Every structure is written in structure tokens, then in C-alpha cells.
Amino acid sequence: MDRGGKKDSPDLVAHLEPHNPSKNVYSICFELHRIAPDVLTTVIGTVAGNLTNDDFVKRCQSTKLLGRLFGSRGSSIAVRFRPCFRDWLRRHADADENIRQIMVKSLVNFLMTQHKHADLCADVNDTLVKTLDDPCVDVRLAAIQQVCGLAHAALCVNAYSGAVEEKTGGDNDNNAGGSSARGSRRNSPPPISVVSAELLEAVGLKVRAKNKEEHRTAITGLAQIYFKHYLRPRLEYVQEGGDDVNIDEILQIWENVDSDLESKFGWIPRNVFLCVSYSDAEDAEMRSRIYQIVDDTLLGTAKREGSTLTPTARACGLAMILQSLKSNDNSMKWCAFLMSQRASLQRALGSYLDARTKAKECESGSPERYEADSDAMERLEIVAKHSAPVAPVKSPGKEKDANDLGAILKKVHGAKDKHIFRILSTIASPTHSPNARMRAFDELPKRTKGLGPGAQGWIRSLARRCAMGAFVNAEAIEHCIILSQECFESDDVRTAACFLEGVKLATTIFPQLGGTKEGFKNLAEYFDAARTSNPSAKVKRDMEKFGLVTSLSEILARSGKSRSPAVAPGPANSQDSFDFGDGDGENSHDVLREQLVRMCTRDGTPEQARNGVYGLSSMIGDSKDVAARSKRERKEFDPLLKALVSPSRLAVPGDDVGPKAAGRIVSVLSAIAAVAECAPYAFNAPGASGRKGWGQKAVDFALEEVLLGRRSRRSDAHEDGGSDSEDGSDDDEEKSPSKKGRSKKKGQSRTANVHCKMTSGAIEVLVAHIRSTILHSRKGSKKS
Length: 784
What we know:
The N and C termini lie far apart (93 Å). A hairpin with a 2-residue loop joins strand 1 and strand 2. By secondary structure, the chain is mainly α. The chain has 37 helices and 2 strands. Strands 1-2 form a two-stranded antiparallel sheet.
């Protein structure tokens, strides 16, 4: 039985085949309505009466005929015979599965052809919502596929003008739905408004379905719908402007938000990341599907040629998605978890490749070779734990161990093609380019074909999970940094913070993404601009509200650890400095260091002071040579410790000190604790001529004056006005008594709050001192 070019299932056709005479009658009725629609006035009531006939064949043929009549292009039968239309809609709950399958196709076709009748389409949407809860899995799957296919094929709505686009978008991603809504059609598809928000939300609920095929199909279709109908229209002007787009076009994205589109599509990324909760043990294919959706669907595909979005547009899309995830803590946690899984896999793969290289350097057949080879295999097993399980090979052929993980790992480890491991080494670093990713996807399956289908499939899955996709990569993060700085320079701190949120999340998990030459250089410039600019009162309030400087200092500290200092020109024992990639590394280093020191000693919050110390620590790099490490620490941190323990800074504030100056001691203690943690050798170094070192003075203050409440000479010296401040610039801080009229209880509350924080800071200093003492003692034991 043919329905507009589509054939029924073989079972249904065989079931209806004995009733061909009746079938011909219904076919004649359908052809008659094309020639003389008014003829059906006397017939349609009889046809609708068979919708409840006990005979399955008559009921099925009536349902199918009415579906074709109501959904025929240009037909107004549904409008003229509404009672019959409502009776037909009730067939979605028919007792027979085949009729319910017919209803799904007919309902979706009705939305495709009759989208101008909004009231009737609303009834059809409600019916499809009920169909998604059908007791039969096949019916539910058909509904999910065809609804997603219809929505994806629908015309986009301009995010700014609200007008329906005349083109389908021209994207290269695959359609998501069933066959009835896909494919080329003579007539233009309906607008996306034909699919109601309630129907999309009902599809969204299917991601929690127990049936694996249901939740995979639902989340894949929704992700493609989100990109085509929400993300890409909102980024239309940014995409057209390329990487040189005006910053005003970007700011418009956050200013002009369509609340209807936001409520209809904005929740989809949250559902995508909630699906990360499906573990490999529960549904490995679903976890792999989520990796693919995040990498190649939510923000399009990043590839060698024909990328779906420009880097600037992808950076904007990343900021938009993360802003959406912030409204659901679980979604943000699962997003971070997914990226953490990739980072762990990259570290495990890098560790294995290093161990394998080390084993290959040993003499063949030697005990060292066997030991190194065994260590490499153990590391490869760790890689397997972080990767997807082996997918069953349906037709392994002569290979009996195609599904045996142990045998697959041995084949991979013993592969003779060195290029396999060179390709894997490129994607083991998070800073690899999209071209490196595509090269791995293209070449690895070809080069591992000789290892058998089991090993080939495992390597393909490993590359898919290890390589960085379009969602988060070095290129996107570098553009986020640039766009955040441009928004800040345009006095839009809120949007700047949105872009910085993506950088913060990425560098928390992949510190190397903020440590690239261009990325770190832009971060340092941005940090200096945020610290030295003279913003308006509103911008200053926004900077404090969104924690802009705190976020920048945290990102710098994390990113700096992933960078290797480049030795500056001069003596061999001179201070190392970062290579900023602009030929002016020494000056850039000095500017950054000056701002970090100032933040630690003068005007930084406790968190900023701690981040400043971490940033300074990252500048001296890491060294296995204890003596060299100790020398670097003392050169970098002795001046800072001297400034921090000066009586003008390290003193218990009195009651006549303003709240800002009183809270400075908390930042100082936080910085001292961070120095003890990052630079134990400098912190425990003795002073000149047998005097106490700067670290010991800080410990005595924390214990004696803060925790035990004992006043010392250094406190008396502070009261007498003595100061050994390095720059003498602390005297400009507010030390005036509280203003008249201020609530006494409020002042007492602030004082109590400062003292509580000061006590907590003193405890942190002592704990960090105990840890640093252990490390310092190891230095002495190694020397001896």
C-alpha cells in the first residue's frame, strides 16, 4: 500500500493483501477528492465511522485514508470536518501497533503540509506528545525520529528580526529524524514554529528512557535542532563578520535575547551534558555519542576545510552554552566531568607513549627492556580503563580474539608502524590543532587495519575520545581571551565575564590551553589592563561583582604552571622568564611580576593574593635539582616575604582602623601561606647573621600574636610608626576612625568578621609551614 511514495512494512502489507477490493475503494476516494473535493461531503462521515470498527482492516484503511486526506497539500478537509478530524486524532491510542505507526507518520505529515492552520497543528502537537509515551518501543522510536526530522528540516527563524528564513541554513551536519521528514521535497518545509515547545520538551524527556535506542536518538536529534534553530541564527552576524567582526555585533548577542526561542531551545545543552551520567558500564555507545555531539554538533565541526563556524563564532557559542549550563549545577558538573575524563585519557596516553619510547631505547632482550616493556603495558592498560570498552565485532572472520581486550592491547603495543604512535602523540596534548585531529581520524583506521577489526575499532574509539573537538580547544580559548578583553575595553564587564568563564573552566582541566604563546601573552596583557585601568564607578562595581581580576589571576596561575620558562639572556644563574612570543619576553615578564607582587602586598583580596603567589611560583619553573630550585625560590620570594612580614603589613589591626585596611591582614596571611606551600625552601631559609628568617617571623606572628594573643615588640614598633615597607606606599590606606552615624553593631560585626578570617588565615600559615618543613628537611637529607 503506497502512501505518497512510501511503502508500508511487509507484515502490514501481507496482512492487508487479501482485502484488495476494499483497498481500491479507499484509493478511489482519495483520487476523487483531488478532482471534486465536494464529493467527499457525503462520504467522509462513513469513512470516519469505520475508525472504531472492530475489523482491523477497515479501521486501518480508514485511518490511513483520513490521514492522507487531512494531510494533502492544499486540502481544507480538516478545517471543514473538525469532528471527523478529532475522531481521527484519537486513533493514536488504537489497540493495534500498526495503526499507531500509521498515525505517527500521518501526524508528522500533517504538520509538514498544514502548518498554516495553527489551531489544528496545536491539536496534532498535543497528540504527538501523548504518542511519545506509547507502550510500544517501535512507535516511540518512530515518533522521536520523525519529530526530530521535521524540526531539523523546518525553516529557521531570524533571532533578531523574527522573520522566517527562506533557506534551510546550508549547514553540513546530518539530519536527525526519520525518513518521512527528511530528504528533498518539491515544496519548502514548514517554519520551526510548527513544532511546539511542549513537543520538544517531551522529546527531551526521552533522554531518560530506559531503552538505549530511544535516549540516543532523542539527544542526537535535539542537539542538531539546537545548533540549526538556536545557536546558528543567533551567531548569524558574527559568522558573517568572520574573525574581524565588530565587537558591537558580539555584544548584541547578549543584549537581544528572544525569550521565546530561549525557552524553546535554551535547555537542550543542559540535557546533553546530563546524559554524561550514562557510564560506559551502563551504555558505552551513549557515552561515545555524547563525545561526538559535544565535539561536532553543539558548535558545529572544526576541520581542515569547510568548518561550520568561524573561531570567533565558536568562542561566542561556547560562552552562550556555558551561560546556559550555569542555571543547572548538575549540567555544569557533568560538563566538567566529561572534559576531565578526556584530560585523564590524554595524560594516560602520553604516559604510555613515553614509557614505550623508553622501552624501545633499551637493548633488545635485556632485563631492562623486559622491565620497561612490562611497565609500558601496564600504562596501556590504564589507557584502556579511561577509554571506551571494546565494541563487539559482529563478523570477526578468522580473528577469534577480536573482542578480547588483552589480545587487542598486545597487538597495539606490538605494532610495527611507528607512525601510529606519532599520530597518537599529537592528540595526547590538548593544544593540538583541528588538522591534527582530522589527520588522526583519517589515518589511524587505515594504519591499524592490519591489526584486525577489534584493534582497529578500539584505536578509532580511543582517538575519538582523546582528540579535542570544536567545543573546547586551544583556538577557541585564545579567541575567548581576546573577546573577553575587547568586551572589558567596551565597558561591558558582564559579557567579558561570560567569555572568561569558558577560559576558567577550560584551564582548570586543561591548563595548557591557557599556556599557549598567544593565549598567555593576551592573558598577561588583559590582567595588566584590568589592574591599571581607571574604570568608571559602574565598571568598577561590575568588576567586583563578577570577580574579573580574581578570575584572571586564577587563570594565570594555572596556565603558568603548564609553561616552561625560557632562559633569558645573561649569566647562567640569572632569573628565568617566560617567552611571550613577541621578542619582548623580559619586559612582559617584569610587568606581569610587578602586578602580581602588588596584588599580594597591597590591594588584592585573600584569593587574589594567593593566586598572585601561585603565578609567581609558576614563573620560576620546576627543577629536580634541589639546590637550583632553592636558589630560584630565594631569588623570587625573598623580597616578597620581606615586604609581607614588614610591621606595617603584618600587624593585628586596631579598633580605629578602617574596614578596608583591617581586612588587609587577611590577604597578607593568605599570601604567606601560599609562599610556604609553593616555595618551602625560601620560606624556611634562615636570616642573615643568625637572625630569624622571614618565614619564621611570619610563623611567630601567626602563633603568638593571632592565635595566642600575645603582643610583641614588632606590634609596639608598628604603633610607633616604624615601617620597613619596600615602597612606603601603604600609608595612603584608610586609617581614619569610623564615620559618625555608622551603626555601632555593624562596626562590631565587621571587626569580629575580620578577626575570624585572620584566625583562619593564621591557621593556614601554620599548616602550610608544617608541610614546607617536611620538604625543607628532605633538602637537608639529600645534601648530606
